[in-house]
Amino acid sequence: MTDAETMTDDVPTPRWADRLELGEGIRWTDGRLVLVDILAGRLLEAPGESGTGPAPASTSAPAALRLLAELPVPLGVVAPVAGRPGTWIAAAGTGICLIAPDGTLDWLARPEDDTPAHSRMNDGTADPHGRFWAGSMAYDATEDAGSLYRVDPGGTVTRVLDRITVPNGPAFTADGTAMYLADSARGVIRRYPVDPGTGTLGAPEPFAYVEDASPDGMTVDQQGRLWVAIWGGGAVHRYLPDGTLDRVVPVPAIQPAGVCLGGPDGRTLHITSARIGLDAPGPLDGAVFTLRVDTPGLPTMPFRPAGPG
After folding, report:
1. For strand 245-250 and strand 5-6, is the pairing parallel, antiparallel, or unpaired?
2. Which tens digit of pLDDT belongs to each residue from 269-278?
3. pTM
4. Which DSSP state fits 185?
């Protein structure tokens, strides 16, 4: 890490009034910023221009996030559904569902209903070929209790990896031929080759390790660099495509959890954080932060269901 450039002059600023219990799943999509508060089951939208301008003055009351939907189960992440405005595919509760514009749920599968460990869905994303991917984990982070699932356009939900403890990401390269996946509890990010036609994963290789903290949510920018929230480390790391750590962005919260690059020009780094598990949360723990950066992110991909929209 000593060779990485630390962006000490550019510290992310809190943008909205909310302090989330477990803020993750942040995405710039359809010209707006959405995110989740996982255990509260809330899907939220950031008002205004989603943090692309300066932070509010200290004498002004910052805006609050707006509630889009509230589920009766934990909500790990959502992705838009192509051709169905206002509909989301979600990793929620013990499985995968569609959230209709009126908030009703249509479950595709609940594969974690009968697992030995008490489990829930966690992070996920849609890939450039329209598939949706999401991980599961035990509430108590039981070792090897997590899995990774793939949802194909026809709606079939397939377990593609198991024996993960806390899966986070995944994130895909622009062409969808490689996937990054963190096993947060083990401090490792792995890179998997992906068959773009079938979504089949090849043999993984270690991409990066994080010591004394955990890699969490991640995103890829237009130069192929991987940005990673570092839970317990109060930072966001940026890795070159060869796995070299080249930037460390300090975050004024101990548990950064999710990242995305968005805004009208794609060059605003948005960072979620969490208060859960902290004995004495600081004033910025649980905040959502923004920071202007030099390279835009990749577009947020939708899930593309087969058949009519």
Report:
1. parallel
2. 999 999 999 9
3. 0.93
4. G
The residues that are catalytic are: 216
CA distance 304 to 302: 6
Q: Is 202 helix (H, G, I), strand (E, B) or coil?
A: coil
Strands laid side by side in the 132-138 sheet: 119-126, 132-138, 146-151, 157-164
Can you spell out the DSSP letters for 17-51?
S---SBEEEEEEETTEEEEEETTTTEEEE--TTTT
**Pair of tokens at residue 47:** 């008002």
> How far is the C-alpha of 167 from the C-alpha of 163, rounded, in Å?
10
Mean pLDDT across the chain: 93
Residue closest to 142 by CA, chosen among 160, 165, 114:
165
Number of H helices, E strands in the chain: 0, 25
pLDDT for position 61? 66
Q: How many CB atoms neighbour CB 113 within 10 A? A: 10
Question: How many CA atoms lie within 13 Å of 286's alpha carbon, on the beta-carbon side?
Answer: 17
Helix (H) or strand (E) holding 237, with range, is strand 235-239
